[in-house]
Every structure is written in C-alpha cells, then in structure tokens.
Q: What sequence folds into this?
C-alpha cells in the first residue's frame, strides 16, 4: 500500500514514496543556490521553482521506488506551517493527484513530521516505532526552534519555542555579518572545527530561564557590536575560526542545556533532535555527551532526514491513516501559520 508524499513548505522540493514504515524513495531538490544571492529565501522565486521541479522530482521518486502512479494507495503533503506560495504548490498538486486517483489525502503538520524523523533508521530507511519511547524532541531549523514533549506516537505537547530568531536564523544572520553566503550554518560549522570556542565570550540568552523558550536575537546583536569594535577580525583566518567557534558554542550551549533540563524535569529516558541545525557537528557531539552523562537514549535524525524532506511527511501520514484513518477532506486549504500545540 504505497503512499506518495510531497513537501514544499520552504526551499526544498521533495517527493517520497513510503510503504509500511519503509522509505522506498526520497528525492529532494534544494533551491539553496537560487536564494543565495538574496541572503534568504524569496517566497515568489521559491514557488516558481517548486512549480518547475515538482513533476520531475515526483517522476524520479516513483521511478526510484519502482512504483507506478496507479499503484499509489494514498497521498500526503505538508499543509503548514511554511511560506504560503510555496506550500500551495505541493499541497494543491498532491490534493489533485489524490482526487484523480480516487485515493485518500492527508495534510500534514511539518513540525509534527520532524518529531518522528529521528525514528527513521537503517537501509532501507525504516521507521522503528516498535521501540518508541516517550521523549523530549528538539526541532532546530532556519525558521523554528521548538522543544516538544512526545508522550506517545501521535501524542505530543509543545514545551517552548523561540521568542524571536530561530537557531538556524541566528547562524545565518551571524554568517551574513561576517560575509558568509546563505545559508551560513554549514560553513560556520566547518570553520568552527578549527577554532577555539572559548576565544570570545558571547551571551547565552535564556539559558537559566526555567521556561523552555529560546531567544537568539540578542546573541546576533552582540556579534554585530563585537564586529563594530573589531572591524578587521573576520579577515584573519584563525580569528574568524575562533569567532565562529565561539558563536556556535553559545548557540549549542543554550540548545543542549535547555533540552537536557526539560528531559530531566519530565523524567523521560529519550531525547531526539531534527531540523537543519541538527546536522551541526558540535551540537551532535554535545548532545551525545550530555545524554550519555544522564543515561538518556539519544536519537539524532540521520543527515538526509535532518533537513526538509518528504519521507518524514509520508511516514507520519501513513501512521495517521493506520491509527486513526483520518483523511483530510479534499476541499481543505493550506495553513501557513499552523502552530504546533
Ligand atoms: O530544516 P532546514 O533545512 O530548513 C528549514 O529552515 O525549514 O534548516 C535550514 C537551517 C539553515 O538556517 C542552515 O543554516 C541550518 O539549518 N544548518 C546548519 C547546519 N546545516 C544546516 N546550522 C548549523 N550547522 C550546520 N551544519
Ligand atoms: Zn523543517
């Protein structure tokens, strides 16, 4: 009973085919280079690019899964949150496909899908819900930083989120200040490997706040003032690496401290992490060490499932159809501001 899933909430056009918890194909076409010159995602360009890419990506996903369109038993797509014009392309195309094939359609919450992506492991990638454990899940992307208590499969509660910039946004904005291309997170990660994280002292906003919310705009501002006072610093290779490592260390400190504290408070034995920033090597190492120290099981999404992908949309949609058989009525619309509760 293969399910076809579509993701177009931001700047990745992705289509996947999943079957019985297994990812048969997951094709992702990233638009990062298209938006690079603008220093961020341009919604109108993203929508046009999704329109151009969706059919070739879908064809490839079906081909890689060795599944024909008439063998598809259900269709799913990201319904929100995301850029309205980008969401519209994938959501409406998926709805129309379901209508034409006379198959059920499921609209999926993008962040709810991230919650279960760390459970997809192995080759072929398969969702291991048989070993599911209640957990605290950290979702860190360019647009969102969320801490969520996942009590059971399809049963979660939002603990906290960012009050201003997301962690990825902070990486990207700091990168822009020091002249790196968008998105700067991967490059800051790379430069940091050769830098001293204690070279410069940057604030760790809200690290001691008992609430599970985050704030990263103050950190970005302090980097701006630091650069005003040290104008030539990014031109010196080693000082640039030290600066990147110091900023990265501040971001990672906050993320790890607050995630572990929530896990301890809620007495869960498992922590998971997903979203583009969870590719960050320092974050992965620090979470690994912190969880080992607390005897907490850590599940980090595999790199291909950290960033936006349709496989996670399909895995959740299949689970929803299986457990609740709830299909989304064919006349529903996108929900760009859909909040996770
Ligand atoms: O989840 P994602 O692909 O897209 C959404 O925002 O939905 O996340 C993209 C974000 C960008 O801000 C990018 O700079 C950041 O993830 N990112 C990283 C790394 N790889 C991607 N940040 C830090 N270190 C990385 N290795
Ligand atoms: Zn995402």
A:
């Amino acid at each position: 009973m293969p399910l076809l899933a579509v993701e177009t909430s931001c700047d990745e056009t992705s289509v996947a085919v999943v079957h019985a918890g297994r990812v048969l194909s997951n094709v992702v076409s990233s638009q990062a280079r298209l938006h690079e010159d603008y220093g961020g995602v341009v919604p109108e360009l993203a929508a046009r690019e999704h329109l151009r890419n969706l059919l070739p990506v879908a064809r490839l996903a079906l081909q890689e899964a060795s599944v024909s369109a008439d063998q598809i038993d259900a269709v799913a797509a990201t319904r929100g949150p995301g850029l309205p014009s980008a969401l519209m392309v994938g959501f409406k195309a998926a709805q129309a496909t379901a209508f034409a094939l006379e198959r059920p359609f499921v609209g999926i919450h993008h962040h709810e899908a991230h919650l279960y992506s760390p459970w997809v492991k192995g080759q072929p990638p398969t969702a291991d819900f048989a070993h599911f454990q209640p957990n605290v899940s950290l979702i860190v992307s360019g647009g969102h930083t969320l801490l969520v208590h996942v009590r059971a499969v399809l049963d979660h509660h939002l603990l906290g989120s960012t009050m201003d910039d997301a962690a990825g946004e902070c990486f990207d904005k700091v990168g822009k200040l020091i002249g790196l291309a968008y998105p700067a997170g991967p490059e800051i990660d790379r430069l940091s490997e050769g830098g001293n994280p204690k070279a410069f002292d940057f604030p760790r906003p809200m690290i001691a706040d008992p609430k599970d919310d985050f704030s990263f705009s103050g950190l970005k501002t302090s980097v701006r003032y630091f650069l005003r006072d040290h104008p030539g610093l990014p031109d010196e290779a080693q000082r640039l690496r030290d600066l990147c490592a110091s900023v990265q260390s501040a971001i990672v400190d906050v993320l790890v401290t607050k995630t572990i504290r929530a896990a301890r408070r809620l007495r869960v034995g498992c922590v998971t992490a997903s979203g583009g920033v969870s590719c960050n090597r320092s974050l992965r190492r620090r979470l690994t060490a912190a969880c080992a120290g607390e005897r907490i099981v850590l599940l980090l999404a595999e790199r291909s499932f950290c960033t936006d992908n349709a496989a996670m949309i399909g895995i959740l949609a299949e689970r929803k159809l299986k457990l609740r058989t709830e299909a989304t009525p064919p006349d529903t619309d996108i929900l760009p501001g859909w909040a996770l509760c």
